[in-house]
Amino acid sequence: MEKVLVTGGAGFIGSAVCRYLVQEKQVQVLNVDKLTYAGVLTSLKGIENNPLYRFEQVDICDQQKMAELFEDFQPDAVMHLAAESHVDRSIDGPSAFIETNVVGTYAMLECAREYWTGLAEEQKETFRFHHISTDEVYGSLGDEGLFEETTPYDPRSPYSASKASSDHLVMAWFHTYGLPVVMTNCSNNYGPYHFPEKLIPLVILNALDEKELPIYGKGDNIRDWLYVEDHAHALVTVVEAGALGETYNVGGRNERTNLDVVEAICTVLDELRPRKGGSYKDLITFVKDRPGHDQRYAIDASKLEEELGWKALEIFDTGIRRTVQWYLDNDWWWKPLREGRYSGERLGRT
To answer: Among 84, 88, 135, 197, which one carries the catalytic annotation?
Structure first.
């Protein structure tokens, strides 16, 4: 695998994938991103001048332009991460999620199929289309059990429904047309370069600004947390070695309630940047729950661990400390976003 076309490479997970491919794997990368509000090119500052890296601002729904990029770049693999991903925003405005996540994935599949069909037999054998998805397509778990690759789909939000739709399209293109696909469904990611609308960066930055730290409901919703660099390694492992037509769940085996997460952030901040007027935990505020809020997600990553040899290296306690420290050290990255794109206001009230 020498050339990889990455969609959504200016996003949180996509930028981590681009950095890993270029810096660690020495792979040529074409990053295709529409640069919506969550697309942040400064996340790629470390590789922007690397000769292995190239960026094109293109909407994945533009099939003609995407077909031209396929023909020009001649990728060995596609890693399709471009997506609208924030549940709260999907509640306020679902149409963008249908357009990008469903129509955009269809456009990518058709471009990839046309390109793949025209390859020489040897190249056709090695080409891969990797679709990156979410554990939210599975719905909500009770107090016990884990999401497995065979768990029935049961999406509850416009976001998860749009991702479930795209997953089904990908597998339909595999079964109907023979397009060589692999797919991954991941748990909640966290780490450096995370856009500040998501829980962990929002809490860190609100705390630093002495703002309320909002927690939905009772704070007892549970998520499995996956450090973004561990996820990037998993994604590359799957595109390189995953079996065609297979899905691999990616999780960190780090279940925490939302309240646990916020309190852990406060504890680290109390140590690294003490607050004058007591603990950051004093800023915690419980707010009305969002509609359709799934109670618990937890991933069984056994298939990926046993068949492909991947394992998450970061535990939550060390990962959250690294993440908080990164935000303390890198206000050059997040301050322009807080001032110009998203200041921390609540979304998804409908």
So the answer is: 135
Of all residues in the chain, what percent carry a pLDDT higher than 90? 92
Can you give the pLDDT at residue 349?
58
Return the bridge partners of 6, or none.
31, 79
Decide if 275 is inside a domain.
no
Residue 319 has pLDDT above 60, yes or no: yes
Give residue 348's pLDDT.
Answer: 56
- Ordered alpha helix ranges (H), 35-120: 63-73, 87-92, 95-97, 104-117
Find out whether 21 and 236 touch, Cβ atoms under 8 Å. yes
Is 136 an active-site residue?
yes
Catalytic residue among 33, 84, 88, 136: 136
How many domains in the chain? 1
Q: Minimal CA–CA distance to 43: which of 269, 337, 341?
A: 337
Q: Which of 53, 106, 138, 159 is catalytic?
A: 159
Q: Does the residue 35 lie in any domain?
A: yes
- The average confidence (pLDDT) of the chain is 95
- Give pLDDT, residue 340: 85
DSSP letter for each residue of 282-334: GGEEEEPPPTT--SB--B--HHHHHHH-------HHHHHHHHHHHHHH-HHHH
Domain with 103 in it: what CATH number? Answer: 3.40.50.720
**Alpha carbons 123 and 136: distance in angstroms, whole number:** 34
Tell me whether strands 77-80 and 128-134 are parallel, antiparallel or unpaired: parallel
Q: Looking at 88-92, 184-188, 258-262, which range is the least confident one?
A: 88-92
Mark whether 167 is an active-site residue.
no
230 within domain boundaries: yes
Q: Convert the pLDDT of each residue in 142-156 to its tens digit.
A: 889 999 999 999 999
CA dist 243 to 128, 129, 158, 183, 249, Å?
10, 12, 30, 10, 13
337 found inside a domain = no
Name residue, tokens 């924030």. Answer: 86
What lies within 8 Å, CB to CB, of 210 at 6+ separation is: 275, 283
Q: Which domain holds residue 100?
A: 3-195+226-256+297-315
Instruction: Measure the CA–CA gap between 100 and 122, rounded to whole angstroms.
Output: 32
Q: What is the mean pLDDT of residues 280-302?
A: 93
What pLDDT, on the 0 to 100 scale, is given for residue 292?
Answer: 82
